[in-house]
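Let us work through a complete example step by step.
Step 1: write down the sequence.
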Amino acid sequence: MLHPLLPDNAQTEKGWNRIIIEKPFGFEALSSNKLTKALLSKFDEHQLYRIDHLLGRNLIENLTVLRFSNLIFEPLWSRTYIRSVQIILSEDLVVQTGRYFDGYGIIRDVVHSHILQTIALLAMEQPVSLDGEDIRNEKVKVLRSICKLDPRNVILGQYKATSGDKVDVKLNSLTPTYFAAALFIDNARWDGVPFLIKTGMGLIKRRSEIRIQFHHVPGNLYRERIGHNIDLATNELVLRDAPDEAILVRVNNKIPGLGLQLDASELNLLYKDKYNVEVPDSYEHLLLDVVDGDNHLFMRSDELTAAWNILTPVLQEIDKDNITPELYELGGRGPVGAYYLCAKHGVQWTEH
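Step 2: predict the structure and record it as tokens.
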């Protein structure tokens, strides 16, 4: 909680005063609201910087650049052309955060801030300007438009740690280390488009990417050349942060030769080949933003409330023991239930 001496004795009368709060921002809506009230009783909203280091990655900063500075993307950015969106954040490591993670789990630690903020930046309308408040105004509109998460559209998992595994925490039986869900945004741009989330620890590989799948080509003349699985020929835009930062566009192409054989190929921009620059640490990036007074990657109080409202139904079901995490092997692909969830919404997890 807020130390009583901090507001009165740690502020300067000249210049500016800003306070950085590390996530998670509460345990649930109630404790989060109490923390927010305590902060706002001593500080103004513009002084608060709720920091999440995952939002300092170049992928996140690049979302608005790609959308609003490239004519080829923005006209396609709606339910008319986009079939589904996948947001994947997987770690091959096991929990190394002790009692902290056992108390909060992956929903409060990763989904509430990083995943929902990524969706907000991806799905928001064009802001009036690049001013932080203008961007946050649009983000909160998206968060308020996201339907409350239906527990039937959620899969929880927990990795099975054996005696030989180097795991520094014995997890509570209900602490999820894996989360998959289908979210829907109830507005004119995104109505009916599933936003599929997959995030977990102890999986087969480290992977961080946003995968945007477009609709099938209506009346495709080349359907017979594509084969039975038309999904293999679906155009995709992939924004990848790990293992190697890249922007990939999957298009259909004729294989050179006398016959008419199609191939789904990736046009790729691999950052390590294109840019010979040192990439700053996420905290470096965000702390510089704090110094500069740039708050667009930091959650405002109303964004915080909107995010908790989305997740509250699922958190309540977990507290009632109505959702039990599915066990999965360390180094595996996660719970089988996640694949059924995707199939339910007509989407196939992309494993490559």
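Step 3: interpret the result. The first helix runs from residue 5 to 9.
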